[in-house]
Amino acid sequence: MPKGADLPVLTPRQLDAIAMEMMRPHKTLDWRTPAEALIENCKKQGMEIDPTVAPVA
C-alpha cells in the first residue's frame, strides 16, 4: 500500500485484504503476528482483552 493512499476509495473487501496481509508474522515481532504481540503486551500490563471480539468503530 503506497504511503498517502486514499483509503476512502477502497471497498471493504479491499481493506479486509490489506488487513489480512498486514497480520502476517513479522521478524521484528519475533515472528509473531501484530495481534499476538498486542495480546502479549496487554497481558504484561495486566489488561484483559478478548481477541475474539472485534473493536467497535
What does this structure look like?
This protein is mostly helical. The protein has helices spanning 12-22, 34-44. The protein has a domain at 11-44. It is built from two helices and no strands. The chain is extended and about 40 Å long. 0% of the residues are buried.
Helix-strand layout with pairing:
Blueprint: H1 12-22, H2 34-44
What is the number of strand segments?
0
Helix content: 25-40%
Tell me which oligomeric state these chains represent: single chain
Radius of gyration: 14 Å
Give the structural class. mainly alpha
Low-confidence stretches: none
Q: How far apart lie the N and C ends? A: 22 Å
- Silhouette: extended
> Which strand-content bin applies to the residues?
under 5%
Mean pLDDT: 86
Keywords:
57 residues, mainly alpha
Summarize this, please?
It contains two helices and no strands.
